[in-house]
């Protein structure tokens, strides 16, 4: 198959590209390099690269008309930034995504795209099922909800669209907007500084390793499922306090976290119910948090 990834030079997209190439598919990577980085693609071989912004419908159509399926990863993803750049986030995340869906409809292509657990906002109970209320609490989450409404609309028109609701994705090459707390903690520990926790550290998260996310995308594309939304997480909760302590332990440093006031739009509790993905897509996570985090730190003799 010839497959395309929008945002393929980004954090998740580049890991997904690696998985696709391993399976001997022909690959087209699309990225405007605004947040993506060609350095992420250095380890890869045998792919075509197109520098295109997903808002440029004509250029995007010219490339996607020749593929068999689309992984749509391109988006702006920083929650805090979304408060100050609402229009830009809407333009990229909503208009750009609809361009992908329009092209998929025209050429009868299957789309697997990056939704987000942010569509749930602060859930009334956890773990969160796919049928839980969607009530985002920040502009980024609002754009992802609008994308889901578009996905439902185009699915009713016969387009095959699967949305994967990523929980807190982390791994090598991540930027601050993906599981941003892990990126920040790593940077602080590399400078031998204590991790800074915003709030009291009781916030709970479901951290999912990027390689597991890449496999989830492949499973969704290969499945006979034509449409729907799936939680992509581990189902295991970790508090920010626990995360900080684990990362300090792995670093081998004698430090204690520091605390600052909470951030706006920060979700208090997030935990995926992943049974639907396991039962329907045959996917489940493989790499636990401590094993994943250990890859960031030098191995002790």
TrEMBL record:
The Swiss-Prot or TrEMBL record describes its family as follows:
Belongs to the NAD(P)-dependent epimerase/dehydratase family.
NAD-dependent epimerase/dehydratase domain location is: 5-233
Q: Supply the name of the protein.
A: NAD-dependent epimerase
The species this protein belongs to is: Candidatus Nitrosotenuis cloacae
Which InterPro entries does the record match to this protein? Answer: Epimerase_deHydtase (IPR001509), NAD(P)-bd_dom_sf (IPR036291)
